[in-house]
Design brief:
The chain is of the alpha+beta class. The chain is built from five helices and five strands, in the order H-H-E-H-E-E-E-H-E-H. Pfam families: RraB.
């Protein structure tokens, strides 16, 4: 598990650096989406419940077909956070601990470019993603 956490955390600084180089607001709060997947819906549901107990939100699950023709179910564990590698890496460690406990896959994290202009923020759109 420690190797998995270390590997997942290696990309954090690069992602943050790329966002900032592209002009993303360094002082904004970001919606951080940690991607989780499995072929077993029940396991994913248990991860979502435990993540909620830790203060995270979860998106609705989506089904997809992988290259081998298997049904894969995925959802995001979501939080709002500054673009800070230490904080995001702590989230990664906490969430990978959950995914390991329940035997599901942690597929990395992502966020969106923030220009610092809250005039375009649409809370109803956010609520469609979060529940």
């Amino acid at each position: 598990m420690k190797d998995q956490i270390r590997l997942a955390q290696q990309d954090t600084s690069a992602i943050i650096e790329e966002l900032l180089e592209d002009g993303s607001d360094p002082h904004a709060l970001y919606i951080i989406e940690h991607h989780i997947s499995s072929q077993d819906f029940d396991k994913l549901e248990k991860v979502a419940v435990e993540a909620y107990k830790l203060g995270y939100e979860a998106t609705d699950p989506d089904e997809d077909i992988d290259d081998a023709g298997n049904v894969v179910i995925a959802f995001d564990i979501v939080t709002e956070s500054p673009l800070n590698a230490e904080l995001i890496n702590a989230q990664i460690a906490e969430i990978i601990t959950l995914t390991t406990q329940f035997g599901v896959t942690y597929d990395g994290w992502g966020t969106y470019f923030e220009d610092g202009n809250d005039d375009n923020f649409d809370e109803t759109e956010l609520m469609k993603t979060l529940h």
